[in-house]
UniProtKB/TrEMBL annotation:
Species annotation: Dissostichus eleginoides (Patagonian toothfish)
Domain of life: Eukaryota
One Pfam family in the UniProt entry: V-set
Signal peptide: 1-25
Keywords linked to the UniProt accession: Membrane, Receptor, Signal, Transmembrane, Transmembrane helix
Transmembrane segments: 234-257
Domain named Ig-like: residues: 130-219
Keyword Metal-binding: no
Protein name: B-cell receptor CD22
Keyword Signal: yes
Span list, region Disordered: 332-351
Lineage: Eukaryota, Metazoa, Chordata, Craniata, Vertebrata
Amino acid sequence: MAARDRNILLGFMVLLAGVSPGALGQRVNYPGPVCAVKGSKVTLPCTFSPLKSVQDEDGREVLIEIQRVVWCQNHEICQGSTPSVYDSESERNNPRYRYLGDKEGNCSLQISGLQEEDNATLRFRVETNPSRGSFTDRRGVRITVRDGIPMQIKNSSESDGAASLLCTARCTFHQLEVTWSRDGRALPQSGPALIALTAKDSGNYTCALKNDARTKSLPFRLHVEAADKDGRDLLPIIVPVVCGVLLAVFLLLFFIIRRCLTTRRAAAGAVEEEQQPKDVSRQRPDDVHFLPPAEDEVSYAAVQFQSRDVRPPVGSAVEDASYASVQFRPKNQSRAAEEDATIYSSVAGRR
């Protein structure tokens, strides 16, 4: 009897805590505290881990079926008829609250058009069959709604002569329209960022939420220096040109060297042919040879040979030369003197 009373007391305490005896370890993964600007939209990413089964009173394993999921405000357990912002079993949920999850493990919630009444702590509850699988994670997520907070401008990036500006705030302002101005003049852009700002866009910038002058930021001075494009813009042109010139020079040197080698080989062949001895003498059957005299010493030489009709007797030597005339050209004399230097001689051979 004492054991039964102890189980009843334990079950009552667990029920007050929002968990069942078999739900220990069940957990909801909430996001951190959220701060949002009034009128904006926020999304609360959320997951939960339900049990697959529990034991009944007889100790048998019973599969769990999730029947209901609930998001409620400022309540520790969200049980029973507690007012909720979303109830999967209700058809009268607040249209500003949209459930993005399911009944299997996703409990994400989206809130649009935040109002001051949304300043609260939201908690998620799972109800199952059997009820021992039901639980509420009481930690919850804190929502803070702010109104009229001033915006801030940050220089998000600057490279290659271009800059970007970002309009931010201490609290999120998703889905709210942002207005920009430069030097007191309104700009057509309405997003939270201005990108690709160049030197011509330098000036004093401000941003604010549309239709809320209280949120206007302090002026932000932007100065963008013109990028040095001389070298970088010409680089894609210079590299191919240099490569083409180097290739042309290489080919020109190749053909010049080849031409020089060919000309040198031809000259060497001609010199070799000129250095070969020339046979300018006439040969007779008796192998009589005449070597040409030096050019500046002998002008010409003519030798005429005549043969005898009568054979000489055996043992006698007969000169076959009938006559010969030789002209010598002495060095360093005039042409007239050369003509007088002709010497005629005749030699007759007799028996």
